[in-house]
Design goal:
It comes from Arthrobacter cavernae. This is Permease. Keywords: Membrane, Transmembrane, Transmembrane helix. The protein is built from 11 helices and no strands. The chain is globular. The chain starts with a helix and ends with a helix.
């Protein structure tokens, strides 16, 4: 698959996440579990590490558990259980590498990379927390539109030195514009959401362009969904700290 397909997959995942927040809470939980599974399946393929099925199970289950905890935990501690699931997932990754034994190939890359995958899968529960926070959905929409702008900029086949600042600037402009049109969110928090989410997403675009070798479907799926799912935590905490 072509590298631009990652951006298309990310846009589709983002649309599903934002649309899910305007549906039932059960739908958002189902989307969260599906996103965690996509990250779990695809991330080891993107890293091209051994023991893909076992590591995929760990990453996916940790993210699904974090999403379920964000769904069931009463306010205001929506993400109180997220660190516990991150810790359990990382411990499981280390145990898998120990079981594989000394001298196995790519043990260090697999351990570090899949621990990062656990983190990305778990913090995506921030989308569920943002949807539940005060029952206000506008911040999710502003964050989603900002992220979409950064992803669209990332699809352009220009050098990273051009696309990276372009994506950040466009996301930073779309944030306050969306805030003015669709909500009463102040300009400064909306700009901050756009700039932060745009910076994270264009950073992952750089990871994709640096990867050597051809992408298979699973790798493109994992890399497309992982950053979009993970930035939910940023949207939630910016909403909680600067707007509430």
């Amino acid at each position: 698959m072509k590298s631009w397909s990652i951006g298309v997959i990310g846009l589709a995942a983002l649309a599903a996440i934002v649309a899910g927040t305007y549906g039932s809470r059960e739908l958002m939980l189902a989307i969260g579990i599906a996103a965690s599974a996509a990250v779990g399946i695809g991330w080891p393929h993107f890293l091209a590490v051994p023991a893909k099925k076992t590591l995929a199970s760990v990453i996916g289950l940790a993210g699904a558990g974090s999403a379920a905890a964000a769904y069931f935990t009463p306010a205001p501690g929506f993400l109180d259980w997220t660190p516990a699931f991150i810790a359990l997932g990382v411990i499981a990754v280390f145990i898998i590498q120990l079981v594989r034994g000394t001298g196995q190939v790519q043990r260090l890359e697999s351990t570090l990379g899949c621990s990062a995958g656990v983190l990305l899968s778990c913090v995506g529960a921030g989308w569920i927390a943002a949807a539940r926070f005060n029952g206000v959905k506008e911040m999710v929409l502003v964050a989603g539109l900002s992220a979409a702008a950064a992803l669209l900029a990332g699809i352009i086949r220009w050098p990273d030195r051009i696309v990276a600042p372009l994506g950040i600037v466009v996301a930073g402009l779309i944030g306050p514009l969306a805030g003015l049109v669709f909500s009463d969110i102040a300009v400064v928090p909306a700009v901050l959401v756009g700039v932060v989410l745009g910076s994270v997403l264009v950073s992952f675009r750089r990871m994709a362009t640096l990867r050597r070798g051809r992408l298979n479907v699973a790798a493109a799926l994992g890399m497309g969904v992982a950053p979009v799912w993970a930035v939910g935590a940023l949207a939630y905490f910016i909403d909680k700290l600067l707007i509430y």
